[in-house]
Design goal:
With about 140 residues, the chain is of the alpha/beta class. It is built from 6 helices and 5 strands; from the N terminus they run βαβααβαβααβ. It is globular.
Length: about 140
């Protein structure tokens, strides 16, 4: 696969050690070297910041994930999906969808497995927005 600049990024799904993160970092490097602005973070860093009792840390993570032109989230299925983290993740994905900004994510779980990690009302909308609006899913 090749990525062309536009409103959709890439989601790589596959087993651990399949090279998903390496591929994404190479893509991020190319975007950066081409003058693009990026934010690289992991699902666990996102969940930690959003679950933090420190409001500034939470707000900073959310704002930077929304405002950056290119968001790279590694291992999103490793997030502890508390209500707050799920809500903040939905907000980020929804705002990126509305602004036509791509997201680039890696995960080991399938879309269905990711959906089951979330609430009954949140899982399907989040996975659908990822799959149809901000990412093109590819198996690795």
């Amino acid at each position: 696969f090749q990525w062309q600049p536009g409103p959709k990024g890439i989601s790589l799904i596959g087993e651990s050690r399949a090279g998903k993160t390496f591929i994404m970092h190479e893509l991020a490097r190319r975007i950066y070297e081409g003058g693009g602005k990026i934010k690289l973070t992991s699902g666990t860093e996102f969940a930690y910041a959003c679950g933090s009792g420190e409001a500034g840390e939470r707000r900073s993570m959310i704002d930077s994930c929304i405002s950056t032109p290119h968001l790279f989230l590694d291992d999103i299925d490793k997030m502890k999906m508390t209500d707050r983290v799920e809500s903040d993740f939905y907000h980020v994905i929804e705002q990126r969808r509305r602004a036509l900004k791509p997201a680039f994510v890696t995960l080991n779980a399938s879309g269905q497995e990711l959906e089951r990690m979330m609430s009954a009302t949140g899982g399907s909308p989040i996975v659908n927005r990822l799959r149809h609006d901000v990412c093109e899913f590819h198996a690795v």
